[in-house]
Amino acid sequence: MTIKVPTPHIEAQAGDFAETVIMPGDPQRALFVAQKYLNDFKQVNDVRGMKGFTGFYKGKRLSVMASGMGQPSMGIYSYELFNFYGVENIIRIGTCGGIDKDLHVKDLVLAMGVSTNGNFMRQYDLPGSFSPIADFGLLEKAVSECRKRDLNFKVGNVLSSDFFYDDSESALAWAKMRVLAVEMESAALYATAARAGKKALCICTVSDSFVYPCENASSEERLNAFTSMMEIALSVALDI
Ligand code: HPA
Hints:
The protein is built from 6 helices and 9 strands. It is α/β, with parallel strands linked by helices and 240 residues long.
């Protein structure tokens, strides 16, 4: 496929994105990160409301752009950023449902590997199953940032599910294989990064728990938890 920038889904010009992009699912959260942390930022995308911004964090040029929900959406944006806009690193920041008994609402999960019930990998026509993994260097930096801040976090396998509302309630079956949490985008991000020879990491905050369904966090606690995830992603990005 020959595509030039702007692409079908991103109206930015060549050079509008920094080499590292922080990627929440939600466009409003992309705006929040830009307004709270970036200096001199400009909006580089608003196609379909999928907001993207580029600015400076502690003097380093960084971008933040939303991915939307699910592997197809993440697949489109990460593909275009890596392959057409020269982006080298994408750090996803998102929420997940905890399925590990040691994880509580507000804890962090660093996705070392991803399992999926989706079909995204089928396009690669591999003679077996592919294991999507995080870039080890980015993961190492994120672990060290979590330790520095004395946060509760776990590193391991997550499930990228195609179903938020899952009729078969299959999430807990994955816990038998020590999968830590469910989210919906990382498998596509890691696969797209691998195919393009680029780097990716997913950091998630536990927003709800399948093990402790009554657990709740106040909106202030949730915001603080999201804020620490954003700050970890920004510190990793600063150190690349
Ligand atoms: N499932 C999928 N994605 C999620 C969930 C969930 O329960 N919670 C937060 N993101």
